[in-house]
Amino acid sequence: xxxxxxxxxxxxxxxxxxxxxxxxxxxxxxxxxxxxxxxxxxxxxxxxxxxxxxxxxxxxxxxxxxxxxxxxxxxxxxxxxxxxxxxxxxxxxxxxxxx
Length: 99
Ligand SMILES: N=c1c2ncn([C@@H]3O[C@H](COP(=O)(O)OP(=O)(O)OP(=O)(O)O)[C@@H](O)[C@H]3O)c2ncn1[C@@H]1O[C@H](COP(=O)(O)O)[C@@H](O)[C@H]1O
Known about the structure:
Blueprint: H1 7-21, H2 28-33, H3 39-59, H4 62-82, H5 87-97
Helix pairs in contact: 1-4, 3-4
C-alpha cells in the first residue's frame, strides 16, 4: 500500500470532526457524538467492535478481520474527536516510542 492510500485515515478524521462542528440529523457520527448516553455510547461501540475484531481474528477469516478492524478504527476515531484528541497527538506518542 502506498502512503497516498493511507490519506483516507486523515480524510475520515476530518469528516468526523466536521460532523462535530456542523451537526446534521441523518448522520451516524452525529448520533454517536450527541447521544443521550454521552461518551458511554461511543465507548460501548469501541468495546463491541473490539470484541468483534478479536472474534474475527480467531476465525482466521482475513476479510472479516479487515471489516471488523475498520469498524473498530472508525469508532476509535469518533472517540478521539469526542475527546479532542488529534491524529497528530497519536502519531507523536507513537513516534516517541520508536526505537
Ligand atoms: N466509515 C464509516 C463507518 N464505518 C462503520 N460505520 C457505521 O458503524 C455502525 C457499525 O455498528 P454495527 O455494526 O454495530 O451496526 P448497527 O447495528 O447499525 O449499530 P448500533 O445500532 O448498535 O449503533 C454501522 O451503522 C455502520 O454504518 C460507519 N459510518 C460512517 N463511516 C464514515 O463516516 C462518514 C460520516 O458518516 P455520517 O455521519 O453517517 O454522515 C461517512 O462518510 C463514512 O465515510
